[in-house]
Amino acid sequence: MKDMRRYFQEKRDRRIGLVALCSLVLFFLAGVMPVQAGVEVSASLNATSIPIDRAAALSITVTGTRSFEPQMPEVDGLQFHQRGQSTQIEMVNGAFSASVTSVYLVQGLREGKFTIPAIPVKTQDGILTTQPIAFEVTAEPSAAVVLPGQASSSAKTRLRSGEAEKVAFMRVTLAKEKSYSGEIVPVQIKAYFREGIKANLNTLPQLVGEGYVLQQLAPEPVQTRETINNTTYAVLTWDSALSGIKEGQHTISLELEATLLLREQRRRDPLGRSMLSDPFFGDSFFDDFFGSYREKEVKVASPELDLEVLALPQKGQPEGFHGAIGEFRLSVNGDPLEVEPGEPITLTMAISGKGNFDRVQVPELSQEDGWKAYTPSSEFLEDGGPGQGKKVFEQALVARDSHLREIPAVTFSYFDPTDAAYKVLKSSPIPFQIKGAAVEEKKNESVAKVEQVEEKVQAEMSGSVEMPMSNLAPLKLQSDEMTQAMVPLFSQRWFQVFVALLIVLLFAGTVLRQRTVHNANNPRLQRHHAMKHLLTLRLKEIDQALAADDTRGFLVSCRRAIQEQLGLLWESEAGAITLADLRQRLPEGSELITIFSAADESAYSGQELNSQQMQDFADRLRKELEGIL
Amino acid sequence: MKAYNWKIVCAACFFLLLVGQTLWAGEPDRERQFQDAIQAYGRGEYKAASQQFEALARDGVSAALLFNLANSYAQAGESGRAILNYERARRLAPGDSDIKGNLELVRKGKGLFQEEQPIGQRLVAFLELNQWTGLAVIAFVLFGVVLLLPLPPGLKRAPRYVAAAVCLLVTATAITGVFGQYRHWNDGVVILPGARLRVSPFASAASSGTIQEGRLVRPGKSHGSYFLVEDETGRSGWLEADAFEPIVLMKE
Q1: What's the predicted TM-score (pTM) here?
Q2: What is the ipTM of this complex?
Q3: Phi, psi for B240 (deg, rounded to 5)
């Protein structure tokens, strides 16, 4: 029973081991399989025709990735304003797919037909492009236009501040009422809901009015409590920013849609008393438990704000101004500053502060002669609220001229709304060194004529003006073994045979090892091998004694052979087996008893055997003992 | 009639002599051409050197020959062909630091920077295809040896199993590396300056941008004389077959 239990236990262990091994293999296979999620990009405009003073929403959606960077084109007569990004992750049949949508407001500055060209979108898999989109900017307002934040006609109750403080209202705090076109104005939006009222937000606060755009709001606002006029309110706060896009006076407000869960009063008895009006049933717990609720959809609106968008002054606008408005600082560093000829230097330019970072472009090199500048990368790191943070540009620069000793200064222009003036930030040049440049300079001076001739010859031969590369490793002077084709190692026949042999060897080794372990655990088999081995040894001794005509030695070997074989067979000490044991346990008339008896007699009486007798004994003994095996 | 036979015998002897001489002189001729090309390179005649190395490569290639050919192209300003031949040389001699160093220099010189790769791809790129293959085999052999060799007396089983698991892990990693590298085995290199990627496989199709000479591309499906390629930065488009060459040399 115990053995059976152990057998099943071992079988179960082996099965668990097998499952674990399969899981390991599957894990590795999963790692090996290439992950190829197709990245696709699309763009859509929510209107085909917009009036000149309105905007349409341009959505750029990239599926199969979680981040991307559209490179917005510059179109004469159109302005793009970024509204924000949203990410969506879906799981279908166990496969995850992510899509990111970036929304821009497209504003027409003049009438006419426009085409938004293909927009390059930089993703982790490379640069993809959207399809061009054609649309029209008209003079008259278009019925088809859907403005984000525009109120739709509905029978919903509008709760404006000052009208329904008892239920819900909104307040908007703006940093200033006059701002420049494109300037980021921090705004705080607060939605108040009287405590005790259960409310579900159907939308985030939306801008109502023209001339401004509102930055994307956080889907989860900060929740606090405030007491106003002895009434406690649950307050939702969003910190965002407004940006003026159209010069002039504008009236705007913010509103959000919500569903309020209002409790209806419990039915009262005809005498005006509550059915459960005693102190015990009058508890608020029973109010909650027995009272019924009804849902009411409302629009909560803020008071209207009168704001003005100012035009940027044309006077004093510096060259290279790209529309950055705010307060900025510039820091620049280069790495490495000791380079091999042709090795690129990474110039890191960080613009920090507060302002419209979407208009912050890469600072410009004051001097580009002798340099090869590559397209920079940029990254915005938000820090401290809307419109605050740091935009970092990294640009690879390669010095084409070995005489260069410093990385040129970079300049960045912006408009400071506080001082109402344009400002230009300029870094100082950064010294750097090209390895071996000093040595080459001397060489140039001393061998200038020769080099000129060589250059001329080369130009005639190749028609190329490329300078030879001086720092390449020299040629190999010996051609090694030739090959006709390039074949991967695993596709070569000899390698396949080698691996097949290895697998066969491993398999054979495993089988051999299993067999050895099996034999080691089988006492019967071990005994059989031991008997066979000892018998071979003794028969060899017997043959030697026979050849030497050594009767005594012959009989001693015969006796020992019988004792060893029977000892192993009976699982007893070989030396302790006597003639009496043989007579007791072997059948009467056994040849072994005769031989053993003769050996005993010879040992005590010194009886000798002739060759014929010895040969006869040897044959009979061999036959008997081999029979036992 | 006798004179006729005599003429045939003479012609046969002459033919055998010619063939024998050609065969016998083949190797020294090749060596001499190789040294001539090196001398041309030494004189700064890079174009001539590349032509001579190119002529030698038609009868078979070696890592050294391809390396010299690549150097000649690099010095002659043909960065695309230089990178192509460095890549070919690297396939034959993956551990050669000269090849790797020169390839990096030429790529840097042409601004062919590789974008930051995920850690998995960096691990795969740590060794070449054949090196991963060799590692897989060695780790597999060690796995067998560790499991099958009898335990020395006094040694417990646990270290044996740990060592076997490590060998198995290395084998699996190496096989992953083999798969990862084999994906790039059939890559090509853009050899023409100013080659254009097109949105569809026709000469009249709109261009989606230029692809830099020396860029590694992975060809996919083909249509007419165009291949749908994806470059190392992830850009894809249709590229004319003449604009790039596969790195791997096939038997003709």
Answers
A1: 0.40
A2: 0.76
A3: -65, 140
